[in-house]
Amino acid sequence: MLYQLYEAQRSLMEPFADFAQAASKLYSQGAAFGQAPLAQRMAAGYDLLYRLGKDYEKPEFGIKTVKVDGHEVVIHESVEIEKPFCQLRRFKRFTDEPDTLQTLKSQPVVLIVAPLSGHYATLLRDTVRTMLQGHKVYITDWINARLVPLSEGEFHLDDYVNYVEDFIRYLQAEYGNCHVISVCQPTVPVLAAVSLMASRGEKTPLSMTMMGGPIDARKSPTAVNNLAMNKSFEWFENNVIYRVPDGFPGAGRRVYPGFLQHTGFVAMNPDRHASSHYDYFKDLIKGDGASTEAHRKFYDEYNAVLDMDADYYLETIRTVFQKFDLVNGTWEVKNADGVRETVRPQDIHSLGLLTVEGELDDISGSGQTRAAHDLCTGVSAKEQRHYEVKGAGHYGIFSGRRWRDQVYPEVRDFIAAHDKPQKRASRVILAAEDTIKASPARKKPVAVAARKVPTARRASAVKRKSA
Fold first, then answer.
1. Following CA atoms 404, 407, 408, 411 in sequence, which dihedral angle do they give, to the nearest 10 degrees?
2. For residues 172 and 425, what is the distance between their CA atoms, to the nearest angstrom?
3. Are 154 and 286 in contact (CB under 8 A)?
4. What does the DSSP assignment read for 17-38?
5. Which residues pair with 388 in a beta bridge?
């Protein structure tokens, strides 16, 4: 019922938000009432009301170009695999510089596994943009559960693990090898996926980078950990799980709604958010365009929150934060054939393991990610590295100046040290990075159609279509 009430309230507020937006423009400089007394304050006030009342949709990655070796490279997004709850999204790079083209062809392939813990994968926009300077980049783009029809079935933590396995196998089939980076929540299912592949004797990624994740949530528990550990499983099921109302493709699906998650995010630091909005109001009055735009960009991302499937969310709470199945060696994952397999990180041998933590991380506490080294006993000490980012909070390890100046060089060098030559799959048309050459008359990238690969439960069942 709460979800229905929220949607009714949102629908009721929508015309008021539209009115506030229009009124703000009317009182802005150069508009009809721009010269009226207190016009700037009126415009700023209405703009703030609009942003507080508007509905925030999923943002775009919006990465159009990056620089590789000083040359501008054009980026085109394409969906490689489409599953009911996730898309494997690729950022294709185009260039007409022969030397840059050779560089692109030889760079490592990286799968970035984005969190499914509230915000969209676009939260890692800065991660992707920076990685594109030296890597072929793919990312898991999770779908809002309220947009997934009930006919697509349920989504469990086991399915998350199986998805990651499928994506790794797909990249290995395409290039012969790949590297994996997981940020925050997915460190646990990624470690499970790689562990299961190692236990079966499958090829594992060349390296595994784990950043700010709750591998062992018992270490230095944060406020987020304490909530999950101190409330019973039944409390979460009874208090945060609701059904998607009519009007959405996923009507009737049990979810942890995005608006409840957003309320929880804001409740963690209400004073900071109130101060930020007041500063935004003052910056609008002063005409500080740079500061107001930075505020908009941050909150366009921060306020966009997706619904999570209830089964996945509840199983994550129980497995990761209450029973600690991974570190206790008691986690069993149901594979694509319905067989339960025990997750054994000690079976991992042939890869490099890098863990990254922020000194001031208030979401995944100190030592939680580093615990992966204690579990992966089969990885030799020389292939392991831990890096603590001084002065960095949770977001600082994958976004912003510290990520770009401190963390990325560590990640880049670690991946390079464990990379191997790629063996491309035989295809009628190769990937854009291997084929794009500009004609002499026109120095522009040639458009290549995006490839889509049908949903499959196993990588062996995935059929490729030419670009």
1. 180
2. 9
3. no
4. HHHHHHHHHHTSTTSTTTTSTT
5. 357
CA–CA gap between residue 401 and residue 300 (Å, rounded): 20
3-state secondary structure at position 211: strand
Strands 71-83 and 86-94: antiparallel
Q: Token digits for 451?
A: 């490839």
8 A C-beta contact, residue 183 and residue 126: no
> What are the two backbone dihedrals, phi and then psi, of residue 67, each rounded to the nearest 5 degrees?
-105, 130
The total of other beta-carbon atoms located within 10 Å of residue 442's CB is 9
How far is Cα 160 from Cα 150, in angstroms, rounded to an integer?
A: 17
How does DSSP classify residue 376? -
pLDDT beneath 50: ranges in the chain? 427-432, 434-467
pLDDT in tens, 393-433: 999 999 999 999 999 999 999 999 999 988 876 543 344 45
Q: Cα–Cα distance between 212 and 222 in angstroms, integer?
A: 12
* Pair of tokens at residue 409: 């060089």
**Length, in residues, of the chain:** 467
- Please list, residue by residue across 79-91, b when 16 or more beta carbons sit within 10 angstroms of its beta carbon and e when fewer do: ebbebbbbbbbbb
196 within 8 A of 383, measured Cβ to Cβ:
no
In this structure, the number of other CB atoms found within 10 A of the CB of residue 219 comes to: 17
Backbone dihedral region for residue 87 (phi beyond 0: left; psi -120 to 50: alpha; all else: beta): beta
78: phi then psi, degrees, rounded to nearest 5: -150, 155
pLDDT score recorded for residue 425: 62
Q: Give the global pTM.
A: 0.87
d(CA 350, CA 227): 37
